Amino acid sequence: MALLEVHDLVTEFPTRKGVVRAVNGVSFDVEPGEILAVVGESGSGKSVTSLSIMRLLQDPGHVAGGSITFDGKDLLAATESEMEQIRGAQISMIFQEPMTSLNPVYRVGDQIVEAIRTHSDMSKKDAWARAVEMLRVVGIPSPEERARDFPHQMSGGMRQRVMIAMALSCDPKLLIADEPTTALDVTIQAQILELIYKLRNEFNMAVLLITHDLGVVSEVADRVVVMYCGQVVEEGEKFELFEYPLHPYTLGLLRSIPRLEDEASERLYMIKGSVPNPLDMPSGCPFSDRCERVTERCRRERPELKEVPGTTRRVRCFLYDDEAEVAHAVEATEKAHVVKAKLEAEERERIERARKMSGGAEVTVEIEEEEEVR
Amino acid sequence: MLKYVLKRILLAIPVLLGVSIIVFLIMRVFSADPAPVVLGQHATEQAMEAWREANGLNDPLIVQYFNFLGGALTGNLGESYYTHTPVTQELLSRFPATIELALVAIIIASVVGVALGVLSATHKNSVIDGLSTIIALVGVSMPIFWLGVLLIIFFAGYLHVLPSSGRMDPLLQPVGGTGFYLLDTLLMGDFEAFSDAVAHITLPALALSMYSLAVITRMTRSSMLETLGEDYVRTARAKGLKKRRVDIHHALRNAMLPVTTVIGLQLGSLLGGAMLTETVFAWPGIGKFVVDSILKSDFPVVQGAVLLIGTIFIIINLVVDVIYAYLDPRISYSKEEG
Amino acid sequence: MAEATLQANEPQKQAQPDPESAPKQAEKTESLWKDVWYSLRQNIPAMVSLFVILLLAIVAIVTYFWPQVLPYDPYAQDLSASFQPPSAAHWFGTDQQGRDIFSRVLIGSQISLTVGLLSVAISLVIGVVLGAVAGYKGGIVDTIIMRIMDMMLATPSILLAIAFMAALGRGIDKAIIAIGFVSIPEYARIVRSQVLAVKQSDYVAAARVIGDSDAVIIFKHVLPNVMPSIIVRATLGISSAILDAAALGFLGLGVQPPAAEWGDMLGRGRNYIFAAPYAMIFPGLAITITVLAFNLLGDGIRDAFDPKARKR
After folding, report:
1. Deepest in the core among A56, A243, A280, B213, taking most CB within 10 A?
2. Residues C231 and C120: beta-carbon distance below 8 Å
3. What ipTM did this prediction achieve?
4. Domain total in chain B
5. Which residues in chain B have Cβ-Cβ distances shorter than 8 Å to C252?
6. Could you count the other beta carbons within 10 Å of the beta carbon of residue A124?
7. Beta carbons of B235 and A104 less than 8 Å apart
């Protein structure tokens, strides 16, 4: 059984001009221990999805349909106090803005202690020790002293580490990370991702990673969900999806990533047009106005999310009603698996060599960060 | 932190000097000759000249200012033109009455104002929000002396439940002590006197507090709405804290920063408003005394009182700054700020 | 680690001096006022307030030029008719001297509106000039001006106004000066901080490059930008000026008898508070309604200028 099952989720925001469906029938599962990335442009509904799961939507936003099941429990039917016992203890969340996500008037240690003591009967002293330990786990140097710092005395990367320490302090089964690296410097981004990746194994938790950054996805995710206009347009195992994207939108996203190996003179690819107004959606496929392979049918009807047999994937596109396209996709998928197996073998070999060179000692990832004390 | 406080105190000194100059300029340079008012229309020119000479009004202005300043520094604010008692003594004897009134008023305004502001922010667009918006609007639009009059008409004239004037029944008045009747009567354990003092202070304190209450309600509401939208409030909810705990420990704790400043400023302006309230309720404090003295052109009294109130105002601002720094670690723990 | 985001790099747009920026700016300003007026019209309390204020202004003007429209002569004493409670003949009753309170309340609008408008005009003009000079010139000029403003702010304004009145003596002209004078610092502060912000902007730098003089820059470029905050402050300032004037009148420092002023009427009714409460209720109501109207209008204008604030 999956840890988290989101089924046909609909989240609406009534506005003066009409009801905006920020999330329109989203379904996906998160398995225990996996990292699932939800990718999409701003306005695609990915953050609203995560807030819907936490039941932390701002008024007047509300879930209008579907179901969210966590560990066998229906979250949409849970009472507010049941949710309070789940939040922070079983599902934790970290946010995009480490600069503003911590309360400026409390010491960071106290903020972690507050999380711990909300969900356990630990004494203040024990909780403080646990908070310091958590700060050490997320790689904050001299955690005993830094626990006494106020947020403004820390850099953005350090604060995001504190957020992670706080989120993991009660051993959650699921961590929702909503654009955890977007606001950070490039070098710090890599460290935070590596930290999340490492801690996922240590804490044996699943991660729902919300991002607009395919670079982030390629680093850490196991599986990927691509969202467009409040809907899932493609879902699948990361390697398959990156090697042979099925949906024209996914393809466009991948082509707009700058790559070092590309010709320097080549212009970056851009998906033409812009995201449609949520109050004025095309009657057919929401992507039809921007799609390079649009047909008459796309403008008339809305495609359903369908499994593509022979692959791990689901896609919302009429292209795959065509046998030839499916066959092509299956072939490409098989190739991708071959490439993946080869890469994995190389990786194992590299690690093996490194282990031999270091005399059999375990290779650990050292986390270093230039701390800008301000 | 200590350095910060010292810096603030040093900055306050020139402001205080400036206040003394402004007061002096208004009373001695812009104003008409007080002699005919004090001595009466029919006094001879000779008598008036002798009076001016005796009161030092013929000295060069600069000498007059330094006499005033020198006196003020040693606590000597001159003598009343009429009673010839030292102004300092007159003011100090009335001081506790005004401070007691202002303190009770600011406590009412802060407690009710913050509570209303928080409730209307957490229950936006509800009945209580509408109610507190109306209170806030009417509160800043109503002259406090008129509110005082309405309270007197209703509670004293119509219901006959509360006294309309004075600080206390003279028979119950405590002798000696601090001059703060609420405190004195309570310390003496004289509950009859205490309840009498409470009854007397209720209406004037209510009237005086209304304006500040309105301002504090409004400020708390908007500040609270702002902090409720902050990321750290969402973080606190995501930790699994109860909404009430988040509202108070996280949102209100931060919202109180600007509100503290406003409360301090209001305490200062209450001292100005006290002049009106004290006049309406015949409250024997500094305010009523100043108004009476103005009507009699008793300049040393006015001068001394304005200087005293200005000084208290500055001290309050100083204290508020320090409290603010204490509440906001971004100031007290900032490294640039020594 | 490869960094890839969905946002493709847009070619950096070169900031170029636009030769047509002046007429464009004028257009922009015009549409700003239209927008403000449009969103003000949606604000029901503000529009009702505007209506009340216009009504008061009409009453003040009409009673000034044609006092015969009043039901009674507001100054005619008739001791035999003193303290009559409200009735069909005297809607608001009569005062100690037997004067019709309704007529006096109506004619009292003249003084309150005059004091409100003129004293704000005084503090506005002086405050804007001082604030603009301080902010624009900076340095020692700034320090001196703003220190003086700080000192004035260090005393409760009503206390300062009372001290002024004590020195200057009674009279409506003096009340206007006293109230106008004590609120100079508020305007100076607002204008200074805005000028400091605007001073850094590109279009002021551009104006300086093409050789505009300081005065031209201040009046053509800086002041139009601080107008919104000034208008809001001035509208709210009128209401506090009216309150202060009423307070002075109440303390007996306002008008000379027999002039009809709301605060003065309240002050004179004080000794008869239980016998003739109506002599105090109606003038106070007039003050409250007028002040409330200016407050609501000021709030409405502020919201119209700053749509973000409206949501709060």
Report:
1. B213
2. no
3. 0.84
4. 1
5. 295
6. 11
7. no
